[in-house]
Amino acid sequence: MTPQEWESPERLATPVQASVGQVAAYGLRPLSTGEVLDRTFEIYRAHFWLFAGLASLSGAFSLILNAMAMVVHHVVLLHHGIRIAGLVTQGSSAVMGLLVLPVQAVVYAASVYALCEVYLGRTTTAKESLNATAGRWLRYVGIALWQVWSAMWLGLLLVLPGAVLMGVGAKNPLLLGLGVLIVFVGAVGGGVYGVIAYIRNSLAIPASVMEGMGVRASMRRSKTLAMDTKGKIFVVLLIAFALYLVVGTIESPMLFFIARSPFKEHVMAQAAVLLIGFVGGTLVSPVALIGLTLVYFDQRVRMEAFDLVMMLGGVAAPEVAAWAPAPVAEAPAEGTSGDAVEPMGSDGHV
Q1: Which one of 45, 188, 315, 348 is most buried, counting C-beta atoms within 10 A?
Q2: Where are the domains of the chain?
Q3: How buried is 204 (Cβ within 10 angstroms: 0-12 exposed, 13-18 middle, 19+ buried)?
Q4: How many whole angstroms separate alpha carbon 145 and alpha carbon 139?
């Protein structure tokens, strides 16, 4: 078997190779769902400040935007009333989502890079991980947008006609009931499809970071790797969702207090909600990021014998751009010696 190389596009002429026999810091082998979760929390505990520090960057950015939106909401509420303030809040939420997405995508990619370094037994910092991935932020944003759209498009396609019927037939019980039924079926059916679609595409950013793939190739790669492991991915996302529910439960008393008197100022309660959301997101989001990346490794071990590639010295000091594996050469023809194996070049020839 010919060992693979991790080659850098900037240095294809002189690829860097690891010493033969290098092993990962964590044993690469097929993992059960429980083992993926155990290893997720094990790595998170061992490198808490690294992953929490990365997650805090997107959390802090969201906190600043939410604080600005809160100020705008109060100003509009005082001068134009709750109806206009509600519309402004909905619009600002959409704008904030678009602004936060690039930061979250880069932080996700940086977390994948950091986890790969940890797996190789190396040390890295949040700054180094961000520097290694920030240059390809547009690629990661494209993947994130594709993931969100794939999860939403069917639901929107089914819900919008129902919403139109509800608006047009507000005074017609038949049309109103039909619209409610379409919205319900669309929300349920579109939601189920959206979860499945997101699971299929959830390994795209790890594939892009590790293998240097573009947006479309990363999405195809994710579908291939997730083909037989959707249940494992679902459990990882479900655990993260349950932890977010805990954060929401902590926030709920303040939210209930604010909702009881929406015309009054609740600066302290809203500030508490923002702070709890920031702390909760910082602590919870690494669980999903680490877990999904471990599933990516697990699938490569199962499908491509990635653990053997590692043992054969197939990993070098990684730069993000250097993590695209060369194709594996075919076995030597009969009559040739299998002992002398030459390294594979960047053009795929031995």
Answers
A1: 315
A2: 24-323
A3: buried
A4: 10
